[in-house]
Design goal:
With 261 residues, the protein is of the alpha+beta class. Helices cover 39% and strands 13% of the residues.
Length: 261
């Protein structure tokens, strides 16, 4: 067993540790018992398996003034109370009071500082999560990701860029196939066929929203349903419209006019 050359007082709460302990010397002082008798009791309880070995339970040899080093145990609260369980009520009360003092004065572990993620990383990740949500358009995803980024980092990336708001998509800034065709020289039917061929939409015979077409997973990124009046003015139905970006996407598929000979 290693020798400790530093003088130790009889009261040892081991406050430098994450949790306090009580030494066998202090137990002997509080119980007004011989230290050797307390050590004998501790070792007997260890042999019987009543006390539990742990990293907080230590056994060292500490010098006594004018005497040779003496074996000293440092015990946890649980083991201390087991050791004094055979003593009278007054002694047990003193031990409990002392433990309350130790626990009050023991240093608390410093609170861990939560590291905030970089705002650009948080925004990209939240944008990716938002893309999995059904019936959420591109603008809504951006706004949701920006709000989530502010919650995590304290920074709203859209406000940082001066974009305090994003116009919500509406029937005016989304285009029908006919409107797209007018800009690129295709008929509305030709635009619909091209959208099918390029895997942006599929034709359906009976749609829950009353539309003849539904977007594919690829098409959901650039399309949205809008309410419109049914043919002949009877009721309403939803019409699939497309982001203005689709004009440049579909332009290469428009037939070029034949050169004049």
């Amino acid at each position: 067993m290693s020798q400790n050359s530093t003088y130790a007082t009889t009261i040892s709460s081991a406050l430098s540790r994450s949790a306090p302990t009580m030494s066998s010397r202090e137990i002997a002082d509080i119980c007004e018992a011989r230290h050797n008798d307390v050590v004998v009791t501790i070792e007997r309880l260890f042999e019987n398996g009543v006390l539990r070995e742990s990293r907080k339970t230590t056994r060292t040899y500490r010098p006594v003034r004018g005497g040779r080093p003496t074996k000293v145990y440092d015990l946890t609260k649980r083991d201390t109370l087991v050791v004094v369980s055979g003593y009278n009520d007054e002694v047990r009360a003193k031990i409990i009071d002392r433990w309350m003092e130790l626990e009050t004065s023991a240093p608390h572990a410093p609170a861990r500082r939560t590291r905030k993620p970089a705002f650009d990383v948080a925004y990209r990740r939240l944008l990716s999560v938002a893309s999995t949500l059904p019936n959420v358009d591109e603008n809504q995803r951006c706004l949701m990701a920006a709000r989530g980024t502010q919650e995590l980092t304290g920074i709203n990336p859209l406000e940082l860029l001066g974009a305090t708001s994003i116009a919500a998509p509406n029937a005016e800034n989304y285009l029908t196939p006919t409107q797209i065709g007018e800009q690129i020289g295709m008929s509305g039917q030709a635009v619909n066929r091209t959208l099918i061929q390029q895997d942006y939409q599929v034709k359906v015979t009976s749609s829950a929203v009353g539309s003849d077409y539904e977007p594919t997973e690829k098409g959901k990124e650039v399309s949205r349903f809008f309410d419109t009046t049914r043919r002949h003015g009877k009721g309403s139905q939803q019409q699939l419209k497309w982001s203005p970006r689709m004009v440049s996407v579909l332009r290469p598929f428009a037939k070029k006019p034949e050169p004049v000979s």
